[in-house]
Amino acid sequence: MNKIEYSLDTRQLSSDIVQWFHDNKRDLPWRQSEDPYHIWISEVMLQQTQVDTVIPYYNTFVSRFPTLNDLAYADEETVLKTWEGLGYYSRARNLQKGVREVVETYGSKVPDNKKDILSIKGIGPYTAGAVLSIAYHQPEPAVDGNVMRVLSRVLLIDDDIAKARTRLLFENIIYDLIPETDPSGFNQGLMEIGALVCKPKQPKCDVCPIAAHCLANEEGAQLEYPVKKKKTPPKPLYFAVVVPQDQHQRVLIQKRPDKGLLANLWEFPMISVEPEQDNLDGIIECEMKNRYNIIVKPKDIETTVTHIFSHIKWHLNVYTADISTVGEDGETYRWVKEAALDSFPFPVSHQKVMKYIKAN
After folding, report:
1. 159 near 228, Cβ under 8 Å?
2. What is the pLDDT of residue 324?
3. Helices (H) and strands (E) in the chain, counts
4. Within this chain, do residues 113 and 259 fall inside the same structural domain, yes or no?
5. pLDDT reported for residue 239
6. C-alpha pair distances (Å), 214 with each of 19, 151, 184, 200, 203
7. In the chain, is it the N or the C terminus that has fewer CB atoms within a 10 Å radius of its CB?
8. Which domain CATH number covers 289?
9. What does pTM read for this prediction?
10. Which residues form the HhH-GPD domain (predicted)?
């Protein structure tokens, strides 16, 4: 679809979205500010994360790093620790890298034009549109899943929303619809309608402020939109997680590589295994000797933890083990007292392991 022929009153549609937003918007902490830095933080945190989950993390993060300079000059481990539990840690790393670019290249001022803001690490079209429209009141589109769902239904658009060209289509539609007088209210209104009213499986069409404009509602076809190709199920991966304790009652933790999944976070030693692994004790003993120069005798499975990423699913069988020597630190691993574990940033999966170990 290169050109949309609108069969509805687009000006009234835009007006209804804006009016409803100002009358019904939620009281969220990032809406108390038009600081582009704070809006940037909130939009990054809200990617793939529920609003209620984000609120305490946003408040803590802004309190800890209230200005661009505070975040730019913080050490990465402090940033990751503050982000701990929110997941998708590459968001935090890219946010800090982007903020450093703003400090170094733009004199600590978030750019107010599309070309420059899109050049910043970690900022894509959605975040750029959100910052430009909310902080700088520019009529730029901010297209997320909520927005595509609402407009797919209103305009009966059957293009696959998983495809990049469909996102461009929605951006062009918003350029047609967004009012120059209140682009912030329009973009946030579309997002809010998607979050609270035009829900994926149970849309509340009876209270929707734009139901009168909605072609899917008119045809009773709301649940057929948006069109999206089903994702491939995440690939299962299996690991033995070993938590050895030395004679000083310290446990062993390992820092992940500085690139890739969960980069620079800490974890308990993980050994890749098969679902029904033969000679598992022998494999664990050999790996722990080769990696950390310790001899362990793993006990029975203590607990099992599962964690789903977008493309893989971890199955973690957790073992404890005592060693008869004093552990020695290596370049990427340390022996630490249980009480000190909280000072290290761990991914959610290993926070679950830690919680179990502390409780038992």
Report:
1. no
2. 78
3. 14, 7
4. no
5. 97
6. 17, 9, 22, 15, 12
7. C
8. 3.90.79.10
9. 0.81
10. 45-196
How do residues 296-336 score in pLDDT, each as one tens digit? 988 888 899 999 988 899 999 999 988 878 889 999 999 99
Q: Name the active-site residue from 43, 84, 140, 267.
A: 43
Beta strand pairing call for 270-273 and 266-267: unpaired
Total domains in the fold of the chain: 2
Tell me if 40 sits within 8 A of 61, measured CB to CB.
no
Domain containing residue 313: 235-359
Residues 82 and 152 in one domain: yes
Which of these three, 192, 224, 256, is where a domain ends? Answer: 224
Is residue 229, in this structure, part of any structural domain at all? no
**pLDDT by residue (tens digit) across 23-36?**
999 999 999 999 99
Count of C-beta atoms within a 10 Å radius of residue 335: 21
Q: Is 92 in the same domain as 122?
A: yes
Query: Following CA atoms 49, 55, 57, 63 in sequence, which dihedral angle do they give, to the nearest 10 degrees?
Result: 150
- End-of-domain residue from the set 224, 252, 278: 224
Question: pLDDT at residue 92 above 90?
Answer: yes
Which CATH number covers residue 38?
1.10.340.30
Question: How many CB atoms sit inside 10 A of residue 116's CB?
Answer: 15
Question: Is there a catalytic annotation at residue 43?
Answer: yes
Token pair, residue 303, equals 């607990």
Tell me: do 199 and 292 sit in the same domain: no
The confidence score (pLDDT) of residue 93 equals 95
